[in-house]
């Protein structure tokens, strides 16, 4: 007996109903991106490892899926290297390519390679899958979609403002209540500076970014393990646990960071973004959160994260400014800022809250019953006319028993069934059955189109 097939952990199959829901998510986000003037691109699923490595920090590099070279990948490797069992070193010999970890680094590579074709500022969006060799758990997958929007070639903070408006618009359309969290890496650099640990900024941000996941005590333990002094950790506590309104937090930070030029710059940027958005009147809450660090090393300015308020799940959107990213590919001086919607987590949130519009998940609206060759031949032009009117319609392909065809309509949640027999053909009409309430009536094709279109 053949072994039962399976799929890799952290990946999923999606049924037709689930795909209808996912397409609702993609289409909603795509429509909002278009509304704000973003254009779509795509990049390959795999990139050269030289493009990906070193862009996400040590933790990110460990989560890259590497692709084994084809052909004789043992050539050029000594017995000593094989026996050493040094996985990282052997992987560098066996693998030249990897699956993309996110869409931002491939986008930076795209900008550098196509710089002569691009008009700056360049506003692009990209909706494609990414892969991470992470431990699968609820809300965290090894293969998942990101829906990114980025602006490169502009230093203006109006880009940050518009990206937050996009976030607010998208989640308002979904009906999901969210809290948009904002911080600035310059503020975090200023904090590291005033506590006397400026050279440990990466360790500090990686640790405090985990505050809501592992708690304060474990964050402090991680800071100690990274060699950060007890005195510095003590100074850090009231800063990362700062409370109050956004205005109160900014006022306190101006005092705390008065001796740090970079810290004050971060406060100034945050104040502009928050005050401009306040004047725009967002539908969702926006909060300055000093524990937000976004572990990726390439962020240099404003950083964002979005939490759903009515479901326990990780962040469902994130992003920030990354002034130096294209520089690693030989193109310096190009500033960028972007956001990424986590489509798979949004999918889970919409499922838990049952927020999908009925029309988003309904497929076929009308089924023509098939009683035989003569009836099918009569129905086909009517089917074509219904489709031409924009009605999603189909005919049952086989002249099966009525019960089977009705069961098919019920299984697919088709709301209307057109029944054509000898009497209907003689009158040039058809019987239209409403599957939801059970009513049926004799109608012409034009009357059918009017009823079903409603």
Main CATH class of the largest domain: Alpha Beta
Give me the CATH superfamily of the largest domain: Bira Bifunctional Protein, Domain 2
The dominant shape is globular
**Helical fraction:** 40-55%
The neighbouring-strand order within the major sheet is 1-5-6-11-10-9-7-8
In the predicted model, the low-confidence regions spanning at least 5 consecutive residues are: none
Structural class label: alpha+beta
Tell me how many strands there are: 16
Report a brief summary of the structure.
With 454 residues, the chain is α+β, with helices and mostly antiparallel strands. It has 19 helices and 16 strands.
Description:
With 454 residues, this protein is of the alpha+beta class. The chain has two domains: 16-64 and 101-353, BirA Bifunctional Protein, domain 2 (2-Layer Sandwich), CATH 3.30.930.10; 363-453, Rossmann fold (3-Layer(aba) Sandwich), CATH 3.40.50. Helix content is 44%, strand content 18%. The protein has helices spanning 16-35, 49-52, 57-62, 79-84, 87-94, 104-113, 158-174, 185-194, 201-208, 211-225, 230-240, 246-256, 261-280, 343-353, 358-361, 373-388, 402-411, 422-427, 445-453, and strands at 39-40, 46-48, 66-68, 95-99, 122-131, 143-152, 178-184, 285-288, 302-308, 317-321, 336-342, 366-368, 393-395, 416-419, 430-434, 440-443. An eight-stranded mixed sheet has the order 1-5-6-11-10-9-7-8. A five-stranded mixed sheet has the order 13-12-14-15-16. A three-stranded antiparallel sheet has the order 2-4-3. Helix 16 links the parallel strand 12 and strand 13 (393-395). Helix 7 crosses helix 13 (261-280) and helix 12 (246-256) packs antiparallel against helix 13 (261-280). It is globular and about 90 Å long.
């Amino acid at each position: 007996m053949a072994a039962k097939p399976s799929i890799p952990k952290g990946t999923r199959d999606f049924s037709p109903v689930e795909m209808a829901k996912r397409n609702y998510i993609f289409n909603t986000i795509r429509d909002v991106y278009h509304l704000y003037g973003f254009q779509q691109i795509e990049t390959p699923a795999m990139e050269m490892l030289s493009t990906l490595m070193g862009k996400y920090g040590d933790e990110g590099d460990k989560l890259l899926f590497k692709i084994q070279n084809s052909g004789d990948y043992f050539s050029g490797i000594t017995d000593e290297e094989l026996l050493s069992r040094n996985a990282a070193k052997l992987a560098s010999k066996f693998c030249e390519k990897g699956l993309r970890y996110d869409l931002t680094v491939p986008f930076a590579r795209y900008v550098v390679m196509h710089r002569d074709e691009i008009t700056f500022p360049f506003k692009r969006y990209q909706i494609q899958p990414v892969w991470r060799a992470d431990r699968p758990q609820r809300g965290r997958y090894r293969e998942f979609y990101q829906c990114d929007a980025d602006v490169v070639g502009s230093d203006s903070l109006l880009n940050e403002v518009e990206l937050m408006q996009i976030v607010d618009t998208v989640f308002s359309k979904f009906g999901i209540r969210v809290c948009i969290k904002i911080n600035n890496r310059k503020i975090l650099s200023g904090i590291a500076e005033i506590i006397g640990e400026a050279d440990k900024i990466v360790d500090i941000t990686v640790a405090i970014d985990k505050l809501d996941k592992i708690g304060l005590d474990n964050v402090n333990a991680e800071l100690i393990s990274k060699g950060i002094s007890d005195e510095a950790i003590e100074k850090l506590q009231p800063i990362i646990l700062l409370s109050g309104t956004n205005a109160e937090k900014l006022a306190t930070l101006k005092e705390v960071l008065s001796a740090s030029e970079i810290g004050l710059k971060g406060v100034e940027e945050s104040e502009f973004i928050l005050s401009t958005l306040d004047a725009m009147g967002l539908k969702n809450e926006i909060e300055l959160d000093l524990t937000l660090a976004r572990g990726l090393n390439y962020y240099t300015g404003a950083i964002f994260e979005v939490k759903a308020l009515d479901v326990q799940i990780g962040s469902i959107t994130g992003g920030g400014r990354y002034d130096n990213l294209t520089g690693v590919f030989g193109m310096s001086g190009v500033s960028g800022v972007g956001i990424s919607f986590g489509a798979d987590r949004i999918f889970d949130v919409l499922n838990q809250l049952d927020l999908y519009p009925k029309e988003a998940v309904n497929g076929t609206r009308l089924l023509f019953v098939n009683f035989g060759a003569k009836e099918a031949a009569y129905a086909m032009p009517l089917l074509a006319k219904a489709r031409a009117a924009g009605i999603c319609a189909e005919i049952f392909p086989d002249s099966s028993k009525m019960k089977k065809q009705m069961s098919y309509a019920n299984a697919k949640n088709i709301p209307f069934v057109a029944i054509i027999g000898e009497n209907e053909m003689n009158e040039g009409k058809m019987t239209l059955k409403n599957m939801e309430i059970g009513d049926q009536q004799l109608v012409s094709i034009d009357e059918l189109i009017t009823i079903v279109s409603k």
